[in-house]
Every structure is written in C-alpha cells, then in structure tokens.
Specification:
Blueprint lengths: L4 E7 L5 H14 L4 E11 L2 E9 L5 E6 L8 E2 L2 E3 L2 H10 L6 E7 L1 H4 L5 H10 L3 E7 L3 H7 L6 E4 L1
Length: 158
Amino acid sequence: MKPTNITIVSGAINSGKTTKIKTLIATYKAANLSIAGFYSEKVFVAKELVGYDLILLSSNEKIPFLRINSFGVSNRIGPYFINKNAFIFTDEELLDSEASIVIMDEIGRLELAGNGFSTLLTHLLAAFKGELILTVRDVFLDEVISHWHIKNPTIIKI
C-alpha cells in the first residue's frame, strides 16, 4: 500500500525548505498528530558552516550527519563526509513507525544514485500508509518524482 498523500517541499539551496518543514512539524505537534522522521540542521563553528546534523522527530536527538572533516572511513557528497551511522538511526526511526505523518529532509543526488536514504524511501513508498513529506532540491524534483514513480504529489515550492 502506498502513502495516502505525498507532499514535496521543493526549492533551491538555502531557499527555506527545512524552515518550512519545521513550521509543518510545529503545526502537527500542536494538533497532537503522530509524526516521525528527521530534518537537517546546519552546524556552525565560529560562524563557518562545517556540516549538518539530523534531528530525529521522535526524540529531538541530534545525529551528526555531514561534516567537512572525515568521520573515518566514509563516503563524500560535495565537500562533506557522510556519517554512515546516521542511516542506522533514521532506519530505526522510520522502518516500523506507526506515525500518521513521516518527514524526510532531504532527498537528492545521493538517493538518486541508490545511496543515502534511497532504500528507506523505497520502503516507505511501498509500505507506509500515512502522509509522507519530503524535501527535494528544485533541480532534482522531476528526477525524484520519475525515479520513484510518485503519482500526483502535492508540491510546495519555496
């Protein structure tokens, strides 16, 4: 069974996709709706962007995700090294979730190459029965929709 509704928040880099997601999260929490998932948060050191953390919605736990400095043996995306352990936490957060709303921030180049959250997204698209909300950079929007055969998503352009 596919999700009942798929919403994609789309925009350019630094356009406010995650800010929109945070607004939606606050609205859902205020309405006592059950939500699960994660959003990304920039990490700065002395005003310099050094990476991103993932914030798990069930616990508000911060998981180091992308960093300029290596996590040891890890892959890269752009200038960042990827903490592969972050995927364990997101899988635990979402694979057996009974939430009515799931949020994934963000789906992009890594997933289109079959990495990152690709397997998790594929699973959710096949098995999750609630509302699925994704963020996708505008340059990847059509490709993400086509790649995962997403039918009639609601698009929120930022």
